[in-house]
Specification:
By secondary structure, this protein is α/β, with parallel strands linked by helices. Helix content is 37%, strand content 19%. It contains 18 helices and 14 strands. The strands form 2 sheets. It has a 7-stranded mixed beta sheet, sandwiched between helices. The longest helix has 19 residues, at 445-463. The radius of gyration is 24 Å and the shape is globular. It starts with a helix and ends with a helix. Mean pLDDT is 88; it is low at 465-473.
Length: 473
């Protein structure tokens, strides 16, 4: 689903439930009272407050602001908010399209990121309305509660959620690390979101503070503040490596959609023994792209070999992989380049495990395998990795020279293990994972799964086990 289509779907959903919105809140009054009380404890009365996703304005009004502005994607919600709280300003707009010169003391975001298409775009927009001491109060639904909430919806026990991406707090933290924000503190609310005497009190005052148990709470929260924008750039260029095998239906569009990044962006297409017209499609447009190179060989040697050939031929300081099927939109590549160009980290790994995937983008067994390998790689590398097989990765060319490749057929594990061995900081960038438009996936679940398991064993030996000779050094 495109960003525009997603916004339209969300807008239509909340317009549809607007008339019953306050009724649903009364039906689950204990939950909403606690959320409101949590916000009120933080926001000082008489402050300037912006609420993103304000609904009918209840939370904003409860903070008693000197200047209160509420925005919501739903015109019907805004209409009701204006009728109820005329002393405040309410506007209908997605946050990415809202423009104002005002800076606010507090920005409230209750369950907002659960419904947006791209969380990083939202936070990039939020920065416009922050002064140095602005506090952003964020609450989201704990994704572990998704099955329970879906069950309750079927029986009319809760408000219809509509299109959503319930995201773990740690994944939001990773995104903020890539942007100009820091987390002051974070935690959990409402381990038991219904009122039962004594049980609710114990669960929601004591239980939410017990490590392990608190992770089962229904609400995650963060208090965030902006940090000075990192305007330092290292002045680097970028080499985009597009390995491909029988991608005649995708390769031209993939090349055309690569954005310009840094001082120079070169595109290197590595034709890995294709038997179709992939090579000719690239040659036909080479004259239109002065920095487009083609590496062509036979027979097919696998993606890992193709990536290695592209990296060896690259001339720019940042190396990046883009799969030719465009399951990761090329427009999202700057998010891989900028942290390296700012020196924030040394390796960027794409993750498809944050946003909902487009239908048929990944089969269930592949998804399960990805999650299992993510846990294994996190254990081995001591770095938080939620998706080890996303084809889009970025690193410095100077580091690639010290990474041993050729063991893993796909190259993903070689690069991740190599970065970990170098002591590099690995950061993850969430991507929108789309189904391929043409051709078919080259991944074979069981055969390649066993191959990757063997790669994990090798990584375990190299990164964790210490030989007697080394131990005695």
């Amino acid at each position: 689903m495109s960003p525009i289509a997603h916004k339209d779907t969300v807008r239509e959903h909340f317009d549809k439930i607007a008339q019953d919105y306050d009724k649903w809140k009364r039906k689950n009054a204990y939950y909403y009272r606690n959320i409101k009380a949590f916000i009120q404890r933080i926001v000082r009365p008489g402050s300037t407050v912006l609420e993103v996703g304000c609904g009918t304005g209840e939370v904003l009004a409860s903070t008693k602001p000197k200047r209160g502005v509420g925005i919501d994607i739903s015109p019907e919600m805004i209409k009701l908010a204006k009728e109820k709280f005329s002393e405040h300003t309410f506007l209908s707009a997605p946050i990415e399209e809202f423009y104002s010169k005002e800076k606010f003391d507090y920005i409230i975001m209750v369950d907002v990121v659960d419904h947006v298409y791209d969380i990083m775009s939202v936070f990039e927009s939020i920065h416009r309305f922050c002064h140095p001491t602005t506090r952003i109060i964020l609450t989201t639904i704990n994704p572990w509660w998704d099955p329970i909430l879906s069950f309750l919806e079927k029986f009319g026990a809760k408000m219809p959620e509509g299109p959503h991406n319930f995201i773990e707090k740690r994944n939001i933290s990773k995104m903020l690390d890539l942007l100009d924000f820091s987390i002051n503190y974070s935690g959990y609310l409402l381990l038991f979101p219904k009122y039962l005497p004594l049980l609710s009190f114990l669960a929601n005052t004591v239980g939410v503070r017990i490590w392990g148990l608190n992770k089962l709470s229904s609400v995650q929260y963060m208090v965030i503040q902006p940090t000075p924008k990192n305007t330092t750039h290292l002045g680097l260029g970028c080499s985009i490596i597009i390995p491909c095998y029988n991608e005649e239906g995708n390769i031209e569009e993939a090349i055309r959609r690569v954005p310009q990044m840094g001082t120079k962006t070169e595109i290197i297409v590595v034709n890995d023994g294709s038997t179709d017209q992939t090579t000719n499609r690239v040659k036909n447009i080479q004259s239109s792209f002065p920095h487009l190179k083609l590496i062509d060989y036979t027979p097919n040697r696998g993606k890992g070999y193709a990536v290695q050939q592209g990296f060896d031929a690259a001339t720019q300081e940042v190396l990046m992989i883009l799969d030719a099927d465009m399951s990761v939109p090329p427009e999202e590549l700057p998010r891989f380049f900028e942290p390296l160009n700012k020196g924030i980290c040394q390796f960027i790994n794409g993750t498809r495990m944050v946003y909902p995937m487009e239908d048929q983008a990944m089969r269930f067994l592949n998804l399960l395998g990805n999650k299992i390998f993510g846990l294994m790689m996190t254990f081995i590398t001591h770095q938080e990795l939620s998706d080890t097989l996303c084809g889009t990765k970025a690193l410095y060319k100077k580091d690639y020279k010290f990474i041993k490749m050729g063991i893993d057929k796909w190259g993903d594990f070689d690069l991740l293990f190599g970065a970990a061995k170098l002591g590099n900081k690995i950061m993850e960038v969430p991507v929108h994972y789309l189904r391929r438009q043409s051709g078919h996936s080259k991944m074979k679940t069981f055969r390649h799964g066993l191959h990757l398991l063997a790669a994990c064993v090798r990584g375990f030996r190299e990164l964790i086990l210490i030989s007697p000779e080394k131990a005695s050094d």
